[in-house]
Amino acid sequence: MFVPDVAGNKLFHGYGNIETNAKVGLIFLIPGHNQTVRVNGKVKVIDGSALDDVKLEVHDPDEKAEVLQGLLLDVEESYSHCPRALKFSKLWDLEEISKNIAEPPLPPKEPGI
Question: What's the CA gap between 49 and 69, in Å, rounded?
Fold first, then answer.
């Protein structure tokens, strides 16, 4: 599994954690669906120069969009995750979403954080 870092999104802030412990766990959510998939494995950072054959898949890319680097995940296990917490949280409930938009449950993020 490959997770790209594309110019402009700046999602890869640092690799200190990966250098210390390469084990990762990812949970994939599908909007409107309560089941999830958990994937566990070990990850390594791949430089963009080694990714010439990786197809850029970005919604509405600009002229600067390119894959800079990525994480390559060696999947050790994957399984469905219990949907119980998602059901109780009302994560996909439109009424709950509208309520949270009108009255955010968390204070606004401070600038620069």
Answer: 8
Tens-of-pLDDT digits for all 113 residues of the chain? 566 556 655 555 567 778 788 999 988 888 888 888 999 999 988 877 776 676 666 667 677 777 777 778 899 999 988 888 888 888 889 999 999 999 988 888 777 65
pTM over 0.85: no
Using a 10 angstrom Cβ sphere, with 0-12 exposed, 13-18 middle and 19 or more buried, the burial of residue 86 is middle
d(CA 11, CA 67): 12
